[in-house]
Amino acid sequence: MDKKRVVCPYCGTGCNIDLLVENNKIVKAEGTKDHPVNDSQLCLKGLYGFDYVSGTDRLVSPLIRKKDGKFSKDGEFVKASWDEALNLIASKIKDAKDNFGPDSIVGNFSARSNLEENYVAQKLMRAVIGTNNVDHCARV
Predict the structure, then answer these.
(1) Cys staple from 75: which of 21, 56, 65, 112, with CB 3.0 to 4.6 Å?
(2) 2-54, CATH topology level
(3) Nearest-CA neighbor of 6 among 26, 130, 108?
(4) Are the C-beta atoms of 77 and 64 separated by less than 8 Å?
């Protein structure tokens, strides 16, 4: 059985988890001993919240709603490349900014991201998009 050390994905605290992996499947999670953040302790999500990794219904590529080969809110979900999906997102953000101004756009980011990732996200919203409409889900 292999042991893989990772940072817990469930909040920004930074707990370390040792994942026990057998046949390329996570079979158990343990808190990393002597780690300065969690010292072998984990919350319930850290201990048991890893089944999604081997879920058969996970999305593995972007989906875009298309009708007659073009983006449409009335279309059906179709697999797309990452370049196509990111280009569509960028064009929709640009359209919203051009038509309704930068304050028509909000960035709602995750408490699961670490400090540096959230810093870059808010910097994108403020410096590139031009809005202070930044929020996250950790204020409850």
Answers:
(1) 65
(2) N-terminal domain of TfIIb (2.20.25)
(3) 26
(4) yes
Strand partners, 84: none
In order along its 140 residues, the chain shows pLDDT tens digits of 999 999 988 877 889 999 999 998 999 999 999 999 999 999 999 999 988 888 888 898 999 999 999 999 999 999 999 999 999 999 999 999 999 999 999 999 887 777 788 899 999 999 999 999 998 776 54
Q: What stretch(es) of the chain map to CATH 2.20.25.90?
A: 2-54
**Phi and psi for 97 in degrees, rounded to 5?**
-65, -45
Give, in order, the Cα–Cα distances in Å from 78 to each of 72, 73, 85, 91: 11, 12, 11, 18
DSSP output for 18-43 = EEEEETTEEEEEEEPTT-TTTTT---
Two tokens at 23? 């046949």
Map tokens 């026990």 to a residue.
20
